C-alpha cells in the first residue's frame, strides 16, 4: 500500500507539538483534569516522547508530541516521526507547534515512519495516520514517500526474489505505470549489441545478465540515470568472506534509487526527457566466471585489466555510461553501492557524490539542506589518475594499495563520460540502525536532493 495522508474529513485527534520550554506554559492553560494527567506523566517535550490525553470517559481526546530543542533537531532529521510509534493507530491533525519551514519535512517523515517491509509478513500492525498539515503540498509529499517505499522494498527483497529477472520486471512495471518505453537486452544479445563487460560480469549466474533501458518524456532537456543493478555479489572468484556477503542483496541499491528517482520525476511530470539505464546482473561463480588478470574490452573500446573480480560494479556501469554518453544528453547521473571506501570516509548516513561541474555540485548542496537528504561532495582528484592505469591495459578495475578507493572508482567511471556533464553517487543504500522515519534496512539516499536540484541543474 502506498503511503498516504488521512482524508481531511476523517475524525482526528488534535496533536500539539511542544518543545521542552513550552511544556509548563502549555500545562498552565489546561483544565484541571488535563493538567493533572500531563503532570503525572513523564512528558517533557523531548524528541520521541508522545502522550495521548484521555477525556472524562477515558477515550482519547488529544495528544502531545515532543519536538525537542533546536540543537537536538539540528543533529538529526524527522523529529516528529520519532514520536509516531508511541501514538498508536489513531488519526491525528496537527493544531499547533509545527514550524512552517519544516512542515513538509515533518509530514514526509510521518509517512516514512509508517513504512513496513511486509512482503513476508502475515500480519502488519496499524500505524498512526496524519491529516496533511495546512500549507503542505500533500500530493507531492505522497509521491516522495511512495518513491522511497518503492526503493526500500526493492533493496529489502532477498536476492532469491530480486534477481535480474525480477529487477527487470520492477522496471517494466514502473515504465508501464507511467507510459514509458522499456527495452531490455538479455544474455548473448549483450555481446551482439556491444555490452561486453555487462555480459562478462553476469555470464556465470543462473539468470542471464541484461541491460534495462527505458525512456519517458517527449520534450525538454535529457537526463540519463544509470543505476548499478548487481542483484547479488559473491565477489566472484575473488570470493567475499561470509561476513562481507551478508548484505549483498543491497548491491542493486543504485538501481533501486534511480528507479525511485524516476518514479518521482514521472509522477510529478517534470518537463524533461528521462532515460534510465540499469545493467542487471548477479556476480556469481561457475566455469564461465570472469577471472583475475583477464583483460576485458569495454563498449567504449577501452581495455580493462581485472585485478579483483569483486570490483565488478564499475565494469557494468562503464558499458551503460558509454551508451548514455553516446547520445550527448544534458546530464548523466549514476548511482551505485560501489565502494566500502565511501562508507569509511563519510559513514552510512551521508551520500557522497562527484561532479564534473561546480554548478551541479552547488545545486545539490543547496537542495540537500532543504530536503533533509544529506549529501557530501568528494573530488574527482586528477592526481590519482595514474592509479587506475595498470600498464598492461588502459584501465585497472582494482588499483593496489587500497587508498582513495571511492575516488579511484569515480575516476574510472569518468573515463566513460566525455560528451555530457556527469554526477556520480557512491551510496550505501542501507540504514544499519533504525532512526526516526528510517527503519533498519534499504534506504533511498540522494534522490530527493537530486529531484529538488534538477530545475537548476537542467535549467527547467
UniProtKB/TrEMBL annotation:
Q: Which domain of life is it from?
A: Bacteria
Offer a single GO CC term for the protein. Answer: cytoplasm
Tell me the GO BP annotations in alphabetical order. Answer: proteolysis
Q: Where is the Cytosol aminopeptidase domain?
A: 308-315
What are the protein's UniProt keywords?
A: Aminopeptidase, Hydrolase, Manganese, Protease
Give yes or no: UniProt keyword Nucleus: no
Q: Give this protein's Gene Ontology molecular function annotations.
A: manganese ion binding; metalloaminopeptidase activity
Question: Is Protease there in the keyword field?
Answer: yes
The entry sums up its family as follows: Belongs to the peptidase M17 family.
Protein name, entry field:
Leucyl aminopeptidase
- The scientific name of the source species is Primorskyibacter flagellatus
Amino acid at each position: 500500500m502506498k503511503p498516504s495522508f488521512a482524508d481531511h474529513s476523517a475524525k482526528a485527534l488534535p496533536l500539539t507539538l511542544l518543545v521542552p520550554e513550552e511544556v509548563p506554559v502549555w500545562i498552565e492553560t489546561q483544565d484541571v483534569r488535563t493538567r493533572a494527567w500531563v503532570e503525572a506523566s513523564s512528558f517533557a517535550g523531548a524528541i520521541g516522547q508522545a502522550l495521548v490525553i484521555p477525556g472524562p470517559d477515558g477515550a482519547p481526546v488529544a495528544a502531545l508530541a515532543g519536538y525537542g530543542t533546536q540543537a537536538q533537531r539540528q543533529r538529526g532529521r524527522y523529529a516528529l516521526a520519532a514520536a509516531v510509534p508511541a501514538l498508536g493507530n489513531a488519526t491525528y491533525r496537527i493544531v499547533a507547534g509545527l514550524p512552517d519551514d519544516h512542515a513538509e519535512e515533518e509530514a514526509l517523515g510521518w509517512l516514512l515512519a509508517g513504512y513496513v517491509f511486509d512482503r513476508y509478513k502475515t500480519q502488519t500492525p496499524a500505524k498512526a495516520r496524519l491529516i496533511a498539515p495546512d500549507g503542505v503540498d500533500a500530493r507531492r509529499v505522497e509521491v516522495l514517500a511512495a518513491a522511497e517505499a518503492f526503493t526500500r522494498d526493492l533493496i529489502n527483497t532477498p536476492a532469491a526474489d530480486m534477481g535480474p529477472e525480477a529487477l527487470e520486471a520492477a522496471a517494466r512495471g514502473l515504465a508501464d505505470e507511467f507510459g514509458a518505453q522499456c527495452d531490455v537486452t538479455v544474455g548473448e544479445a549483450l555481446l551482439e549489441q556491444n555490452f561486453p563487460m555487462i555480459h562478462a560480469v553476469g555470464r556465470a549466474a543462473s539468470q542471464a545478465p541484461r541491460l534495462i533501458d527505458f525512456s519517458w518524456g517527449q520534450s525538454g532537456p535529457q537526463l540519463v540515470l544509470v543505476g548499478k543493478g548487481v542483484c547479488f555479489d559473491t565477489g566472484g572468484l575473488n570470493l567475499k568472506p561470509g561476513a562481507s556477503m551478508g548484505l549483498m542483496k543491497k548491491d542493486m541499491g543504485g538501481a533501486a534509487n534511480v528507479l525511485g528517482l524516476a518514479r518521482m520525476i514521472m509522477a510529478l511530470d517534470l518537463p524533461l526527457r528521462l532515460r534510465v539505464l540499469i545493467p542487471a546482473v548477479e556476480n556469481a561463480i561457475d566455469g564461465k566466471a570472469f577471472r583475475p588478470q583477464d583483460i576485458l574490452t569495454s563498449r567504449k573500446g577501452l581495455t580493462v585489466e581485472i585485478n579483483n573480480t569483486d570490483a565488478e560494479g564499475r565494469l557494468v556501469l562503464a558499458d551503460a555510461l558509454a551508451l548514455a554518453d553516446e547520445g550527448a544528453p544534458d546530464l548523466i547521473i549514476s548511482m551505485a553501492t560501489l565502494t566500502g571506501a565511501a562508507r569509511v570516509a563519510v559513514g552510512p548516513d551521508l551520500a557522497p557524490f562527484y561532479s564534473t561541474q561546480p554548478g551541479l555540485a552547488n545545486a545539490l548542496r543547496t537542495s540537500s539542506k532543504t530536503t533533509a537528504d544529506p549529501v557530501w561532495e568528494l573530488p574527482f582528484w586528477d592526481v590519482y589518475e595514474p592509479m587506475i592505469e595498470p600498464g598492461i591495459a588502459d584501465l585497472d578495475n582494482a588499483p593496489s594499495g587500497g587508498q582513495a578507493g571511492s575516488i579511484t572508482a569515480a575516476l574510472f567511471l569518468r573515463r566513460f563520460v566525455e560528451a555530457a556533464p556527469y554526477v556520480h553517487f557512491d551510496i550505501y543504500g542501507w540504514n544499519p540502525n533504525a532512526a526516526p522515519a528510517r527503519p533498519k534496512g534499504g534506504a533511498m539516499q540522494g534522490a530527493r536532493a537530486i529531484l529538488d536540484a534538477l530545475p537548476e541543474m537542467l535549467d527547467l
